[in-house]
Known about the structure:
Layout: H1 5-27, H2 33-56, H3 60-80, H4 86-92, H5 95-101, H6 109-137
Amino acid sequence: MLHNRTQSKLINLSLLIVVAMGFLFKYYPGFGHQWLNNYGAAVFYEIFWCLFAFWFFRSQTAIKQIPIWVFIITCIIEFLQLWHPPLLNQVRATFIGKLLLGTTFAWWDFPHYALGCILGWLWLKKLQYIGYAKKSES
């Protein structure tokens, strides 16, 4: 399936916005920083992975399945934070490993993952609508 250029550009722009907002939340030092650093960034983490997967899979079915799979995989990653074998600890010691795998298990992450996936699903629906609207104009 050929992907519409406008939709691809919007996915790229969305990824840039989400990454910037995620880092802003993760490292924000001001009022409310504890929630923003620990949980607000998790919402953007989920949205990022939904958008990233949507770059490759843009069907109507994918829009329904991507947020579910992102939620499942990130929940598995969260549970992996309870496990500390030397290899995982070495990966977590790096900046990228810390961002991707996290370091500390927290039950409170799960509702934020769910919120991020719901927002990601809504974002994907909007991008899909824009893709269809552009195709019908052509």
